[in-house]
Write a structure and sequence with these properties.
55% helix, 302 residues, 3-stranded antiparallel beta sheet, 8 helices, alpha+beta
Amino acid sequence: MINNKATIIVSVLIACYLTTSFYVVNEAEYSILTRFGRTVAVHDDPGLKVKLPIPFERVVRFDKRNMYQIIPEEEFLTSDKKNIIVSSFLTWKIIYPEKFLTALRTRDAAEARIENLVKSLFGAALGQKPFTDYIPADITQLEDMKASENILAMEQKIFTEASAIASRDYGIEFSTVGVSKFNFPAQNLISVYARMRAERERIAKSYRSEGDAEARKILADASRQSAEIISSAEADAEIARGESEAEAARIYAEAYKDREDFYEFLRTLEVYQSIIDDDTTLILPEDSPLLDLLTNPPLKKR
């Protein structure tokens, strides 16, 4: 009876041990078969596989999908020794699982190595250009997208260099590398904002000065044109007035032809009307032409 129980127990243990000879490869992973630490086979096709039982052969699994990683912010120096804080992100995947196993073994180790690689490349890239290439002293350059273009060029450069190193040394392929934050250290923000404000005020002052100059120019042109128009109109009026007076004189001359005394009489009355009213007192010499009409009326002359 005891022998039977022992046989059953041994049989169950052997069966359990033999089950370690089978393993399943998932479609989203690589399965690397190792024998005493050395790679025997790499499988990326899903299905049931057979191996030697533990401890002779073991299976190491790696995710073959794209993985997203955030690179924490770090402070870097530009070529003119100005501080910039940069944080970034990237996506990557394993393309050479055997190389990845040899170089890194785990995802945590891979992320740590990638973080160091990307930060070192950012430091090298930022150290080659001055601060104003990324945050221009002339704020109007931001409207031309020069700073953004420089950051994009830096991203592309880092992506190219990091991809080559990661593929060669770690069996990793990068899909994207990008900047998620590009800012100043807190102690520099006040001075930067003050510089930006001063620049904007300078631009506004320049616009106001240009506007005032243009306004003065418009007013001067308008005054000149107004003077020219008034002068021309007055000249035309003088010409018209002279012509009309000449025409009136001609008409008077024709109307009073051979009646000069009567014309003189009417003109004298008109003068009286213009200078004499109910409150007027005239003191005239005896030989005054005005007094002659009163002392020698035309009827009396006749």
